[in-house]
């Protein structure tokens, strides 16, 4: 008896409208390629379904390496168009055809389980199913550079993916169209309707987040959507298993770093700290390297490196001495780069994590402490870049963004704030420790 369902993930395009050397489906966002994000979203909806991944001929090895931990993946070489790639997948499935096939674009990484569920439910009654959302824009029909008509929006929708079909129905449609006419169509529902003029394609509701990454602006939006999703990470759902882990905390003598030191120790981790008071100026690479080597020798390796070091000076830029600005950047940004560079080899050896700390001011520069805001925005970019750069060596890199927290640095710069309006450092530390225990990478998590 054939399997009931096959998912087809189309990742065969070249992404020419995105100004990148790498095809868009292989670009990393939030620690994973778009292909990986889309594969995980789709495959989680039915663990028994076949997973067919269509990729360009020159990218099969890359796709296999990205999905090396996904044994269900079946790889197919795509064609010169989207329709040709779908046809290649349909032919691949022909020897053991499923009852239904659900086709999704790898460039849509924000697919929700609800959408897939609705598609599968609809396929129990209909041969073909499309996903769409109502358009909010006025639609015009053009002819020779002029508006020919403006249809009413009541029944105008924007198509998305996935699209679902009874396999045999779509197979017959593709056979009828033939290779020569594939270029006349933009999607599989169009092919089905051309061959089934009396057929009905059921529409299920899509989502405004189910965007397709096509150009540079879409990539910016995708990055922000991943940040929003990271903010929705619930620490209470994450366990705190750091027993026997070896942790080096830079800035562990005060504030959040000191609270993390205590939480980690009480949770069974072995912790070393490095701070200016212990002879480690993070602005000096040699001192950072020495602190890391010392901790590695003492603990027999390092699983997590945490950078809580920060400096804040609340003063208008015009009034700040250039030496003070340089020192702030030296500590906040150059120090973070020093810590990252010194940590890589140890973390690659253990398959560990680097955890940076930013500030809520990273999203928008704050008046009266602009160098600080700028340095914290840089920490976010540093985190995301390193998560991609270090993925191949098995090192995870994340960033925690605490809200206003009751620390000595905060109190010295912002007087008169009521304590009950500030986060407790131990509250932030607990979330940070849970993030260390997670398998996430490339995430910017707010507290």
In short:
The chain is α/β, with parallel strands linked by helices and 447 residues long. It is built from 13 helices and 17 strands.
Written account of the structure:
The protein is of the alpha/beta class and 447 residues long. The protein folds into 2 domains: 5-214, Spore Coat Polysaccharide Biosynthesis Protein SpsA, Chain A (Alpha-Beta Complex); 233-446, Rossmann fold. The protein is 39% helix and 19% strand. The protein has 13 helices and 17 strands. It has a 7-stranded mixed sheet, sandwiched between helices. Strand 12 (246-250), helix 8 and strand 13 form a beta-alpha-beta unit. Helix 8 packs across helix 13 (425-436) and helix 10 packs parallel to helix 11 (370-389). It is elongated, with a radius of gyration of 26 Å.
| Unreliable parts | 15-19
Number of alpha- plus pi-helical segments: 13
Q: Mind summarizing the main beta sheet?
A: 7 strands, mixed
For the record, the CATH architecture of the largest domain stands as 3-Layer(aba) Sandwich
Which helices and strands appear, and what pairs or packs with what?
Layout: E1 5-10, E2 28-29, E3 32-33, H1 34-43, E4 50-55, H2 60-66, E5 73-77, H3 82-93, E6 100-105, H4 113-123, E7 128-134, E8 141-143, E9 146-149, E10 157-166, H5 167-181, H6 188-195, E11 201-205, H7 216-231, E12 246-250, H8 255-266, E13 270-274, H9 285-299, E14 304-307, H10 322-350, E15 353-357, H11 370-389, E16 396-401, H12 408-413, H13 425-436, E17 444-446
Parallel strand pairs: 1-4, 1-6, 4-5, 7-11, 12-13, 12-14, 14-15, 15-16, 16-17
Antiparallel strand pairs: 2-3, 6-10, 7-10, 8-9
Helix pairs in contact: 5-6, 8-13, 9-10, 10-11
């Amino acid at each position: 008896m054939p399997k009931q369902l096959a998912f087809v993930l189309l990742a065969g395009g070249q992404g020419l409208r995105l100004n990148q050397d790498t095809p868009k489906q292989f670009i990393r966002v939030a620690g994973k390629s778009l292909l990986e994000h889309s594969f995980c979203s789709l495959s989680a909806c039915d663990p028994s379904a076949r997973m067919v991944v269509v990729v360009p001929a020159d990218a099969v090895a890359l796709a296999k390496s990205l999905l090396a931990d996904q044994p269900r993946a079946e790889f197919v070489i795509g064609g010169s168009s989207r329709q040709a790639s779908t046809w290649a997948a349909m032919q691949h499935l022909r020897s053991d055809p499923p009852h239904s096939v659900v086709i999704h674009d790898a460039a849509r990484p924000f697919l929700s389980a609800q959408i897939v569920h609705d598609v599968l439910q609809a396929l129990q009654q209909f041969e073909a199913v499309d996903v769409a959302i109502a358009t909010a824009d006025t639609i015009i029909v053009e002819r020779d550079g002029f508006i020919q008509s403006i249809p009413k929006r009541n029944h105008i929708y924007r198509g998305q993916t996935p699209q679902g079909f009874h396999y045999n129905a779509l197979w017959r449609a593709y056979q009828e169209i033939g290779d020569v006419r594939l270029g006349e169509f933009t999607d599989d529902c169009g092919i089905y309707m051309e061959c089934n003029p009396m057929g009905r394609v059921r529409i299920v509701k899509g989502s405004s987040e189910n965007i397709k990454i096509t150009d540079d602006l879409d990539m910016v939006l995708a990055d922000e959507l991943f940040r929003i999703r990271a903010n929705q990470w619930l620490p209470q759902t994450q366990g705190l298993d750091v027993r026997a882990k070896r942790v080096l905390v830079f800035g562990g003598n005060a504030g959040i770093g000191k609270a993390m030191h205590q939480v980690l120790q009480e949770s069974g981790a072995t912790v070393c700290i490095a701070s200016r008071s212990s002879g480690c100026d993070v602005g000096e690479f040699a001192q950072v390297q020495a602190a890391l080597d010392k901790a590695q020798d003492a603990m027999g390796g390092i699983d997590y490196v945490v950078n809580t070091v920060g400096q804040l000076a609340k003063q208008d830029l015009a009034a700040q001495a250039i030496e003070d600005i340089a020192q702030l950047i030296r500590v906040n940004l150059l120090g973070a780069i020093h810590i990252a560079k010194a940590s890589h080899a140890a973390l690659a050896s253990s398959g560990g994590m680097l955890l940076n700390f930013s500030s809520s001011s990273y999203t928008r520069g704050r008046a009266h402490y602009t160098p600080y805001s700028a340095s914290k925005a840089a920490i976010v970019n540093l985190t995301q870049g390193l998560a991609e750069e270090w993925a191949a060596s098995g090192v995870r890199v994340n960033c925690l963004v605490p809200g206003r927290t009751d620390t000595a640095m905060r109190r010295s710069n912002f007087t008169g704030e009521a304590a009950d309006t500030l986060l407790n450092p131990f509250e932030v530390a607990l979330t940070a420790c849970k993030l260390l225990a997670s398998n996430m990478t490339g995430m910017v998590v707010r507290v």
